[in-house]
Design a protein that fits this description.
The protein is an alpha/beta fold. The protein has a single domain (about 10-210), classed as Lambda Exonuclease, Chain A (Alpha-Beta Complex). The protein contains nine helices and eight strands. The strands form two sheets. Strands 1, 2, 3, 4, 5 and 6 form a six-stranded mixed beta sheet that branches. A two-stranded antiparallel ribbon has the order 7-8.
C-alpha cells in the first residue's frame, strides 16, 4: 500500500528527518518496508535509554531506596534484555555513563521527573496523525516544565540548529495543557557528562510546528520520484547495498585497476 492510498497518514519526527536527509531512504524504510540493520550505536543507545527509563520509573512509582541502589537494579533489568547484543566495551561505557548520571544528581536541587517514554498520537488534521515518544517530561526546580531527549552521539554541533524534535515534544505537552505559556527543552548529551543543549520557547513559537508537519505531510504524500541524496551519512545507511548513488558516494561503485575502471 502506498501513501496515496492511505486514508490517515501517520507522521513522526523520524519520518520527517529521514525524508529531509534522503527521499530514497524514506521510500526504502516506510513504503517498501525493507529489512533494516541494527547498528552497534543503536543497540548502545537503546540499552542506555532503558537503564535511565527504569531508574526514573522506580522513582516515579515511589521508593525509599538510595539512587545507587535504584540504578544498580535499573542497569541489571536492562541487561536482561540487551546483554546478548552488547559488547563488553559497550557495557563498561554504559556503566560509566550511569555512574556519571548519579554524580549529576548530587549536591544540587533536582527536577521532578513526571514521565518517561511518554507515548503520543496527536491529530493534526482529519487525515494526519503525529506519533512518537518523549524521553523525559520533568518540572525543574524553578517550576518550569521541561521536555528532554537523550542523545548518545559524540558530536553536539549538528544538534544546535536541529530543534524540530524538541519543538515537537513541546507542542505535544502544550496541547495537553493550555495553561503552559513557556517551556524548556533540551537535548541531553549522555556521552558528554549529561551536558545540555537547552532552549526555551513560548507558546506562539511552539504552536507554529503544527503547520510545519502539515506541510511535510503534503510534500511526502505528493512525492513521486524519491531521489537519493548521497552524503557521508551513506556509510551507515541500511540500504547502501541497493543504492547506486550511495555506493558511488562511498567509493563502492567502481572497480579500478590502474588506468582502467568500470
Amino acid at each position: 500500500m502506498t501513501i496515496d492510498n492511505q486514508k490517515t497518514f501517520a507522521l513522526s519526527v523520524s519520518k520527517v528527518k529521514t525524508y529531509q536527509i534522503c527521499k530514497a531512504k524514506y521510500k526504502f524504510t516506510y513504503l517498501d518496508k525493507l529489512p533494516r540493520q541494527e547498528w552497534d550505536f543503536q543497540i548502545f543507545g537503546k540499552f542506555l535509554h532503558e537503564v535511565l527509563e527504569n531508574f526514573h520509573i522506580t522513582i516515579i512509582d515511589g521508593t525509599n531506596d538510595k539512587d545507587h541502589v535504584i540504578m544498580k537494579q535499573a542497569f541489571h533489568d536492562a541487561l536482561l534484555n540487551w546483554s546478548h547484543k552488547l559488547t563488553s566495551e559497550q557495557k563498561a561505557e554504559c556503566y560509566e555513563i550511569a555512574a556519571a548520571y548519579l554524580k549529576t544528581r548530587r549536591h544540587k536541587a533536582l527536577p521532578v521527573v513526571l514521565d518517561v517514554e511518554r507515548e503520543f498520537s496527536l491529530s493534526l488534521r482529519d487525515d494526519l496523525l503525529l506519533n512518537g515518544f518523549i524521553d523525559v517530561v520533568q518540572k525543574d526546580p524553578d517550576g518550569m516544565l521541561h521536555v528532554a531527549d537523550y542523545k548518545t552521539s559524540k558530536s553536539k554541533s549538528y544538534l544546535k540548529k536541529d530543534l524540530l524534535q524538541l519543538k515537537t515534544y513541546a507542542y505535544v505537552v502544550m496541547c495537553d495543557d493550555s495553561s503552559i505559556d513557556r517551556i524548556r527543552c533540551s537535548y541531553v548529551m549522555l556521552k558528554h557528562n549529561f551536558d545540555k543543549i537547552e532552549k526555551e520557547f513560548d507558546r506562539d513559537e511552539i504552536m507554529q510546528i503544527k503547520e510545519e508537519f502539515i506541510d511535510y505531510a503534503d510534500k511526502i504524500r505528493s512525492e513521486k520520484l524519491y531521489r537519493p541524496s548521497p552524503t557521508p551519512l551513506c556509510k551507515t545507511c541500511d540500504y547502501l547495498g541497493i543504492c547506486e548513488p550511495g555506493k558511488d558516494r562511498m567509493g563502492l561503485g567502481k572497480i579500478s585497476f590502474g588506468e582502467v575502471e568500470w
